[in-house]
Write a structure and sequence with these properties.
Elements: H1 2-19, E1 27-35, E2 45-51, E3 56-64, E4 69-78, E5 81-82, H2 88-91, E6 92-94, E7 105-112, E8 115-123, E9 127-137, H3 141-162
Antiparallel strand pairs: 1-9, 2-8, 3-7, 3-9, 4-5, 4-8, 6-7
Helix pairs in contact: 1-3
Length: about 160
């Protein structure tokens, strides 16, 4: 009977350690381009962001060269609609960058559902831009529960060996 309990504990422990890493690695993608002058939908730059592995957090930076963001047609979209009512002011935060105080905009959205998103922006007067975004998977509750179960088993086994 004692060997059976050790076997079950070993299987649970191994399963929890294997499940721990899961999809926990972040993915960073760089982009760049040229935004044509104007404010029409046809001139709005789009960056496609797709993640189908579960919930995720999105953070990034947009560096337009000597220009700033036009509020019209700007935001994070899920399909054709603006995601969660995030407008340009709520999604993009301006921060001066470098010696010349060049424009830099950071953006972030938390706990997004898996899907195909589009980051849209229109630069005043157009111009060159660079940027990047990082997708960080949000761990599923089951993964954390299994990890805690494994840690509990390790503590139980260690306690038994000390006694």
């Amino acid at each position: 009977m004692k060997n059976y309990k050790s076997l079950v504990a070993g299987v649970l422990l191994t399963t929890s350690v294997i499940a721990l890493p899961g999809n926990a690695s972040a993915t960073t993608v760089s982009f760049n381009g040229y935004d044509r002058p104007g404010v029409s939908d046809a001139r709005t730059e789009t960056i496609n962001i797709s993640y189908l592995g579960g919930s995720f957090d999105l953070t990034g930076v947009l560096d337009p060269f000597l220009t700033t963001i036009q509020e019209r047609n700007t935001g994070l979209f899920l399909g054709a609609s603006l995601y969660n009512s995030l407008d340009a002011d709520a999604l993009f935060t301006w921060a001066p960058s470098g010696l010349l105080n060049l424009s830099r905009f950071t953006f972030s959205a938390s706990n997004l559902a898996a899907g195909d998103y589009t980051l849209k922006f229109n630069l005043i007067g157009g111009g060159l831009y660079t940027g990047s975004y990082t997708i960080t998977p949000v761990p599923e509750p089951e993964t954390n529960a299994l990890m805690l179960l494994g840690l509990g088993m390790i503590g139980f086994i260690a306690r038994r060996k000390l006694v």
